[in-house]
Amino acid sequence: MATFHHVTPAHRIVIRVDNDLIWEQSSKSKKHYLYRRSTGEKLLVSRYSEDIEAFLRSGQKHSTPQHRTLIRQSNGIVLEQSTKSGKYYLYEVQTGRKLAVTSSRSQADGLFANFASQFSDDFEDSGAFEEEDYIPEPKVNEQNFYQVLGLNSAQSLTPEILKAAYRKKVAEYHPDRVHGLGLELQQLAEQKTKEINEAYESLKVIHRF
After folding, report:
1. What value does the mean pLDDT take over residues 132-142?
2. Where is the J domain (predicted)?
3. What confidence tens digit (pLDDT) does each residue in 58-83 have?
4. What is the DSSP string of 70-97?
5. N or C: which end of the chain has fewer CB within 10 A?
6. Rounded mean pLDDT of 144-154?
């Protein structure tokens, strides 16, 4: 069986080699790259050398880049928000595995709670960092997602069952159904549709569909 070895591209400069890790910088974009030489696995990409150094010091496969804010961390799961796009990112710290990306804070909170609880039966919030102008939304969890879509959490969930439930619920609040029923009902239908979409996307991530 052939053994893979990472080869530094011509447009990159090797900054440091640390055992099986190699740190490179692109002469074009000036970005910094950290790879595992034996497998070619890309561990981190950042515009800042400080991110690579922090990563190497921590011995972990994921560290929060400078362009993201750490929102909370518990049981090996981190929730970050990008200062550029505003999106929320969930990672498994020890493996560097990206678990989810979402634009919704409430959805991010729900996914964080679910993933963190999978790593420990004694899940507790670890003292989350909250932005000063952020008013916490009600916590959502997997049970809420099932209820929003009219599903029974005790039953086995498949991609087909999830999609069918999603389509049925979305049809109930379709704009054509509430057209002409007044602004208040139209706004309610819009909010319900948003909750249905969040529940659908969240369950797809949780069950890896």
Report:
1. 42
2. 144-208
3. 666 666 777 888 888 776 788 898 88
4. EEEEETTEEEEEETTT--EEEEETTT--
5. N
6. 86
Exposed/middle/buried for residue 89 (C-beta within 10 Å: 0-12, 13-18, 19+)? buried
Angular region, 87: left φ>0, alpha ψ -120 to 50, beta rest? beta
Query: What are the sequence ranges of the domains in the chain?
Result: 1-59, 64-140, 142-206
| Closest CA relative to residue 138, chosen from 77, 206, 195 | 195
pTM over 0.70: no
The CA–CA distances, whole Å, from 56 to 23, 30, 98, 136 equal 10, 19, 19, 34
pLDDT for the residue numbered 161? 92
Q: How far out from the chain centre does Cα 51 lie?
A: 19
Distances (CA, A) of 43 to 23, 35, 110: 10, 5, 26
Which residue matches tokens 């493996």? 95
Question: Rounded to a whole number, what is the largest CA-CA distance in the chain?
Answer: 68
Q: So what CATH class is 142-206?
A: mainly alpha
